[in-house]
Amino acid sequence: MNSAGTKLEKISAGEPKAQLRALLVEDNPLDATLVLRALYQEGFDVAADVVQDEDAFTRSVRANPPEIVLADYNLPNWKGMEALAVLRREGLDIPMILVSGALGDVTAVECIKQGATDYVLKDGLTRLPEVVRRALRERHEHRLRQQAEKDLARKVDELARSNADLEQFAYVASHDLQEPLRMVTAYTQLLGERYKGRLDENADKFIGYASEGAVRMQVLIQDLLAFSRVGRTDAACASVDCNAVMEEVRQALGSAIEESGAAVTSANLPAVWAERTQMAQVFQNLIGNAIKFRGKEPPVVLVKAEKTGENWLFSVTDNGIGIAAEYADSVFVVFQRLHARSEYSGNGIGLAICKKIVERYGGKIWLESFTGSGSTFKFTLPQGTENPQGARP
Amino acid sequence: MKSIPHLLVVDDNPADVILVREALAGSVHRSRIHSVEDGVEAMAFLNRKEKHANAIRPDLVILDLNLPKKAGLAVLAAMKAGPDLRRIPVVIFSTSRLSEDIQRSYELGGNCYVTKPGNLDEFFAAMKSIEEFWFGTASLPRQGE
Amino acid sequence: MNSNEVDILLADDSQDDIDLTLHALRTENLANHVFVVRDGEEALEFLFCTGPHAGRSFDYPPKLVLLDLKMPKVDGMQVLRQIKGDPRTKTIPVVLMTSSREERDMVSGYELGVNSYVQKPVDFGEFRKAVKSLGLYWLVTNRPPTVNSKPQAAKQGQ
Questions:
Q1: Share of residues in chain A with pLDDT > 70 (%)
Q2: What is the tally of structural domains in chain C?
Q3: Are the beta carbons of C8 and C28 closer than 8 angstroms?
Q4: Closest approach of A273 to chain B, Cα-based (Å)
Q5: Taking CB atoms and an 8 Å cut-off, how many pairs form between chains A and C?
Q6: How far apart are CA C151 and CA A247, in angstroms?
Q7: CB-based burial, A198-208: b 16+ in 10 Å, e otherwise
Q8: B130 assigned to some structural domain
């Protein structure tokens, strides 16, 4: 029953047991039996090889890698601890439990430092099953963690590659696409002017459509670029006084304000930690929209801010045409327009840009509005003179 | 200007050269427009070398930046280094809006920088504005013979 | 006005010409940030941030210098030579605007690197037209050098 490499038969009866493939390094057949019985009694269905020297051990782990190694400390032809060296050499990550006669504490600790997972004394075999269970559990969790880390590293890698692709796309769109587009735009316009009324009746119309399409494409590409550039600027975050930003925005919207007779007022606004040009973009887009989508009366736009918990809650309220509740979410989608091009100009990117900027700082933006009675856009920005997490890239 | 003004357009895109001609067609200044497609040919024209041995010396140069064989900035540098070429005003006319291109052009002695507009009307307006200023308002040293 | 927000530096010793120039620029809405100096010395102090203009910064040069040739203390050609001879100022667009009809002056100007040379017309109407043309060209058509230019207003959004 105990020659080197003989598998000991399992004795199964009664309830199902947890399967376990084990490799024993033990020269004493009685001790081997006791070890296996201790495991069996506590619910392990063990299939085990028993070996006594390095060669047999090596052959066995190669042919049939076990889930656990149970090794005696002192053998006539070998030392149990040297099994660890073989495992390492074979690149096998298998827990090893020392099952030994008297083993001083110091030696035991030393063995664990050298890589043994645990140890059990031969006169304390009742502990063995629990020790084995723990060792297997820890090894399992360790493997799960390693896999999770590998997955994460792979995802980070994919994300970096995806970002690089996007940046390259944006670059291509900005330079390489615009040049041929410029040719199409210029020459369809030139055709339109040169041959107006001189070709058949449809020609003017066809050329007109081509020309308008090309011009629209130019604007679309520029808008897309503006959108993609959010979050990729070189400017640094700083404490930005929103009242000063409002002044700049009022100037930039000067002619629109004058034409529409708009009244744009702001209550005392706080300072936030952000990039100045991005804050200006948010205010300018929201206020510009409020003016553009006006009703019959001159637009009245009010900008306020209040503290709520950890955030500043800004609101931009107008008396314009309002937005139906069912569109409250889709207005923030890139290029989502709610009106025909003939009614209101624009590509529908302003709000998408606002959303991207606000979310970059960890805030939220949403709409409260009723059709026909104006809109209120609200957005939050974290308080504090410094954003503790730093703006997300 | 009493005599016919001569304009040299250095641009590798024939479509843009045509646009320049279209823009200035029928103008009161009646500029004569010459064009070359790359930087090497530009220098040959300006230095009256090889097939350009009888080339007229232009009164104004309109220079694109992205040129094959010899880049626009290199042509500019060569012009502003030479004793008689340096007095010919050079208008950089490029699609590039990059501040480094603009800055470098001025550093190398470019007289001005105009970005090529994306649409036809603005392109024509820019060209006409260039012609009107340089041949109508400004005074240029006599070049041609 | 904040002397770091000057668009045009006008250097001329003739009050009549200064008035005409400012008037012409005003009709094109280009006269908001014009700074006038009446001699070459002050022109240099302004551009090189010395003397009474020591508070100015090289980071905010004017978009255009309109320079007369005949001025007291330091003449236009000297001013031009200094501007174009110094890396801190050589990229500033300079237009020599002068009543001189000397071909020699014009050639020297271009050789020194003046961006352009305009002869002041004798006729008032022509003078105004010339100023308007050069104002529009250098402030609207032309792209000035971008070294530390003023922060732009955010572009119109939707």
A1: 90
A2: 1
A3: no
A4: 28
A5: 34
A6: 14
A7: eeeeeebeebe
A8: yes
Contact C67, C120 (CB under 8 A): no
Q: C80-136 pLDDT, tens per residue?
A: 999 999 999 999 999 999 998 888 999 999 999 999 999 999 998 999 999 999 999
The structure's pTM equals: 0.66
Q: What is the DSSP letter of B137?
A: I
Give the number of domains in chain B: 1
At position A186, the amino acid (one-letter code) is A
User: Would you say residue C153 lies in a domain?
Assistant: no
Position B139 in a domain: no
The residue assigned the tokens 């603005």 is: B122
In chain A, residues with a C-beta closer than 8 Å to the C-beta of C156 are: 252-253, 256, 284, 288
Please report the sign of the dihedral spanned by the C-alpha atoms of residue C17, residue C23, residue C25, residue C30. positive
B102–chain C Cβ distance below 8 A for any pair: yes
All structural domains of chain A, each given as residue ranges with its CATH number in brackets, are 8-145 (3.40.50.2300), 235-382 (3.30.565.10)
Q: Which domain holds residue B32?
A: 6-134
pLDDT tens readout for residues A125-177: 999 999 999 999 999 999 999 999 999 999 999 988 887 887 777 777 777 78
Task: DSSP for A143-185, please give it.
Answer: HHHHHHHHHHHHHHHHHHHHHHHHHHHHHIIIIIIHHHHHHHH
Task: State how far the Cα of B23 lies from the Cα of A344, in Å rounded to an integer.
Answer: 33
CA angle B104, B109, B115 (to 5 degrees): 60
Q: Enumerate residues 6+ apart whose C-beta is below 8 A from C149.
A: C60
How confident is the model at residue A36, as a pLDDT? 92
Chains that touch A (3 or more CB pairs under 8 A): B, C
Is B18 or A336 the better-scoring residue by pLDDT?
A: B18
Looking up residue C121, the CATH number of its domain turns out to be 3.40.50.2300
B81: in domain: yes
Verify whether the Cβ–Cβ distance B111 to C116 is below 8 Å: yes
How far is A304 from A314, CA to CA, in rounded Å? 6
Give the count of alpha carbons within 13 A of B124, CB side only: 13
A12 vs A212, residue with greater confidence: A212
C29, C156, C158: best mutation site toward chain A, by most A Cβ within 10 Å? C158
Nearest chain A residue to C158 by CA: give it. A350
Residue C136 domain boundaries: 8-140
Distance, C-alpha B3 to centroid of its chain: 18
The CATH number of the domain holding residue B38 is: 3.40.50.2300
**Domain for residue C152, yes or no?**
no
**Would C154 be classed as within a structural domain?**
no
pLDDT band at C1 (very low <50, low <70, confident <90, very high): low
Is residue B1 situated within a structural domain?
Answer: no
Q: Which chains touch C (3 or more CB pairs under 8 A)?
A: A, B
What's B29's DSSP letter? T
CA angle A187, C144, B133 (to 5 degrees): 60
CA distance C142 to C91: 13
Give dist(CA A300, CA A290) in Å, integer: 8
What ipTM describes this predicted complex?
0.89
Using alpha carbons, select from C49, C31, C40 the residue that is nearest to residue C94: C40
Q: C143 vs B113: CB contact, 8 Å cut-off?
A: yes
